[in-house]
Design a protein that fits this description.
- With 209 residues, this protein is mainly alpha-helical.
- It contains ten helices and no strands.
- The longest helix has 29 residues.
- The two termini are 19 Å apart.
Length: 209
């Protein structure tokens, strides 16, 4: 069973990850001509406008309670994007990838911080547990959001490469997307997350633990 202190560290990492994830969606869309997020007040690093009552609060806390602190997952309020305002059709792919790439960048940065601290002789275990939790949850967020399941970011990437008829068929899955996501997160008893364990072990080794 994961300690509640580790669970708190995961919550911190989750908050950092989902806020920056959504911020980058809006920032890239703004750069490519769609100012919807800016007009909605979402181009901010203040976490308050990004918080979704269910996805950012109830879902993570519910998973923590139901799994005894072993699992945490969540999401922020999606940044509004209007693809019709974007300059090019492929810009939606850039917007979609901006979130997961940001999560991977966060994971890389905090892994680097941990490695540097270890190299200079800083071995405070709680610091490394916090850094590892931030890296862990951001890797999960990045990988999970690349799954081609509506409304995850991977679905917008896949749609770009589909023909019009295939896209119409694929979009019929959208109403069932949330159910599929729940099955992956909850119904598989965390199997999806365990597939990432080799990568997590590499991160721990890179940090000297």
């Amino acid at each position: 069973m994961t300690s509640w202190r580790d669970a708190a560290y995961l919550i911190i990492g989750l908050l950092i990850g989902v806020v920056l994830h959504e911020y980058m969606h809006g920032r890239i869309a703004d750069w490519r001509g769609d100012h919807t997020a800016r007009n909605a007040g979402r181009l901010t690093l203040n976490p308050i406008p990004h918080i979704d009552p269910f996805g950012t609060i109830l879902l993570p806390l519910g998973l923590l309670v139901l799994t005894g602190g072993a699992m945490v997952f969540g999401y922020a309020k999606p940044v509004p994007v209007n693809p019709y305002f974007l300059k090019k059709r492929h810009d939606m792919v850039l917007v979609a990838l901006g979130g997961p790439v940001t999560n991977f960048a966060i994971a890389a940065i905090f892994t680097g911080i941990g490695a540097i601290l270890n190299a200079v002789g800083v071995h405070a275990i709680e610091v490394f547990r916090l850094l590892f939790a931030i890296v862990e949850i951001n890797i999960v967020l990045g990988v999970f959001n690349l799954l081609p399941i509506p409304p995850l970011d991977g679905s917008h990437v896949l749609e770009y490469f589909l023909s019009d008829s295939a896209r119409d068929t694929y979009e019929r899955l959208a109403p069932f997307g949330f159910i599929i996501i729940l099955v992956i997160v909850w119904g598989t008893n965390g199997a999806f997350f365990r597939l990432l364990n080799p990568l997590f072990r590499w991160v721990a080794a890179a940090m000297g633990h």
